[in-house]
Amino acid sequence: MADTRRPLSPHLQIYKWQVQMVSSILHRATGIALAVGTLVVVAGLLHLAAGQESFDHFKNVIGNPVGEILLVGWTWALFYHLCNGIRHLVQDTGAGYAIPQFVRSSWLSVVLSLVLTAAVWAYVLTAGGAA
Amino acid sequence: MTAKDLRNPLKVARGLGSSQSGVGHWWTQRVTAAALVVLLIWFVITVLGLLHADYATALATVAKPWNALLLIVLLVTMFWHAVLGLQVVIEDYVHTRWKEVLSLVLIKFLAVLGALASVLAVLRIALTH
Q1: Which residue range is the domain that position B33 belongs to?
Q2: How many domains does chain B fold into?
Q3: Is residue B75 domain-resident?
Q4: Geometric angle at alpha carbon B34, from B30 and B36, rounded to 5°
Q5: Spatial distance between the Cα atoms of A110 and B76, rounded to a whole number of angstroms
Q6: How far is A36 from chain B (nearest CA, A)?
Q7: Is the Cβ of B93 closer than 8 Å to some Cβ of chain A?
Q8: Mean pLDDT of all residues in chain B?
């Protein structure tokens, strides 16, 4: 990289923050977080297959406060990546590129992901805590 | 490319960049994404249904033929989609060639390992319960 003299595009700090940019950055960030989260799914299934004691241990680990905070984070990451992913699939058909639509759908991804996360965890908490 | 290189420049260009696999990558990422929309909604609902289930119920749920099948499809699709996404992130941000190649190989190893380990776990549960 250092030896190229090609012009570089201006970096993040140059731009005024706007929701289209946030939704794009979040899509990538949540994607990375979810890739890490797949390991929790793997761990859960391995412990489930290994026997009751092993699975109880897994449930205790993910059920502690730090584990639950991470699970809330992963829930939101999943719903955000899901909502915004559907938005991108729609955009792949060529639809929704007019700036007002683009801004509106960005907000929709953000807000809907928060609503879904709140709904899931409201259900978990009213059902008497996770795990 | 040096003047001594006897190959036609087109021969070199064809082997580089996205000329071979770019469309395949793009398309596979979309197809796995569409599948994951359905699979993950099913997965979230299934997990929420198991909130207060005891161990035996959790096992029995995973062991049901349709659940085991969908779970395996989910795991393979999920890791596939994750590798395609992480690959683009690494290609965008890792500018030292050997680190880039090493990371690309590493995420593929980890994804195959994760997918196989979890699929084997599901099969173990499905075939013994």
Answers
A1: 23-128
A2: 1
A3: yes
A4: 115
A5: 28
A6: 9
A7: no
A8: 91
Interface mutation vs chain A, best among B26, B32, B55, most A CBs within 10 Å: B55
Average pLDDT on B52-62 reads 94
Flag if A120 and B44 touch (Cβ within 8 Å). yes
What pLDDT, on a 0 to 100 scale, did the predictor assign at position A27?
97
CA distance A51 to chain B (A): 9
Q: Answer yes or no: do B40 and A86 touch at CB < 8 A.
A: no
Kindly tell me the sign of the dihedral angle through the C-alpha atoms of A73, A79, A82, A88: negative
Q: In chain B, which residue's Cα lies nearest the Cα of A1?
A: B95
Kindly state the percentage of chain B with pLDDT values over 70.
90
Nearest-5° Cα angle at B15, B12 to B21: 155
Which ipTM score applies to this complex?
Answer: 0.87
CATH number at residue B90: 1.20.1300.10
Q: How confident is the model at residue B31 (pLDDT cuts 50, 70, 90)?
A: very high
Instruction: Report the residue of B37, B118, B120 to disrupt the A interface, i.e. the one with the largest count of A CBs within 10 Å.
Output: B118
Contact B90, B103 (CB under 8 A): yes
Q: Which residue has the tokens 């899931």?
A: A120
> Is B1 domain-assigned?
no
CA-based nearest residue in chain B for residue A128 = B52
- With tokens 């699939």, the residue in question is A89
Chain B residues with CB inside 8 Å of A92's CB?
A: 30
Q: What is the pLDDT of residue B129?
A: 83
Q: Is residue B116 part of a domain?
A: yes
Asked if residue B101 has pLDDT above 90, the reply is yes
The ranges of chain A with pLDDT < 50 are 130-131
Q: Give the domains, in start order, of chain A with CATH numbers.
A: 19-126 (1.20.1300.10)
Has residue B5 been placed in a domain? no
Q: What is the pLDDT of residue B77?
A: 98
